[in-house]
Specification:
Blueprint (H helix, E strand, L loop, with lengths): L4 E5 L3 H13 L3 E5 L2 H11 L3 E4 L8 H9 L6 E5 L4 H10 L3 E4 L4 H21 L6 E4 L2 E4 L4 E4 L2 E2 L4 H11 L6 E2 H9 L4 H18 L9 E4 L3 E4 L4
Parallel strand pairs: 1-2, 1-3, 3-4, 4-5
Antiparallel strand pairs: 6-7, 7-8, 8-9, 10-12, 11-12
Protein name: Stage 0 sporulation protein A homolog
InterPro entries: CheY-like_superfamily, OmpR/PhoB-type_DNA-bd, Sig_transdc_resp-reg_receiver, WalR-like, WH-like_DNA-bd_sf
Organism: Ruminococcoides intestinale
């Protein structure tokens, strides 16, 4: 597969050099920016496929870069930040980030996140994303037109809320969706009681989708943050 163009936004020179060296060693094309305003200019000028973004930039906060890019593009944004508090992750994800990697990070994990994002890009290009009438992920199949979901060829008996949750996750494969985002999409609000309801409905959905609770295959929980549907090869 062709390697995407990656914009690296990082003001810390050693970390920036580490990321760039890694990208270069694995034949990725890349651009760099040392502050938020430069990042926005590079993004608008070159339209990269993926952005690796630090939040603690010297001029503006990284969340402002996310919001600026999201005003005109859906390009994947992977945050790489030393901020490890759940509230920081949630703020970045709610602003429009697709993924969040906490410093210090391993090169292997960074490359894995890039591969997942690249596969999602290719799948979106091939299927037209949510416009495709049928979603296929491993042994999971969703027929959007018919309003039915199947696992191993057998129809899943889902409640309306469970089906809406499954569709929302499937339209965002590989992307972490926060509790707030999900509850707003499903119930139109982000009240705490809706987040409690979300956990209940997600638990029942996972029982139907993943009978082996110790081996989640499709839905990954990000504790304190939200949920992500994994791409199954």
């Amino acid at each position: 597969m062709n390697k995407p163009l990656v914009l690296v936004v990082e003001d810390d020179r050693p970390i920036r050099n580490l990321i760039v060296t890694t990208l270069k060693a694995h034949d990725y094309h890349y651009l760099t920016a040392e502050n938020g305003h430069s990042a926005i200019i590079e993004a608008t000028s070159h339209n990269p496929d993926i952005v690796l973004l630090d939040l603690g930039l010297p001029d503006i906060d990284g969340t402002q870069v996310i919001e600026s890019i999201r005003s005109w593009s859906n390009m994947p944004i992977i945050v790489i930040s030393a901020r490890s508090e759940d509230k920081d992750k949630i703020t970045a994800l709610d602003a429009g980030a697709d993924d969040y990697l906490t410093k210090p990070f391993s090169i292997e994990e960074l490359l894995a996140r890039l591969r997942v994002t690249q596969r999602r890009l290719l799948l979106l290009q091939a299927s037209g994303d949510a416009d495709s009438p049928v979603f296929q992920n491993g042994k999971l199949k969703i027929d959007y037109a018919a309003g039915c979901a199947y696992l191993n060829g057998e129809e899943l008996h889902l409640t309306p809320i469970e089906y809406k949750l499954l569709c929302l996750l499937s339209h965002n494969v590989g992307k972490v969706l926060t509790h707030t985002y999900i509850t707003q999409q499903i119930w139109g609000s982000s009240w705490e009681n809706d987040i409690a309801s979300l956990r209940v409905f997600m638990a029942t959905l996972r029982k139907k989708l993943e009978p082996q609770r110790d081996c989640p295959q499709y839905i990954q929980t990000h504790i304190g943050v939200g949920y992500r549907m994994l791409r199954v090869d």
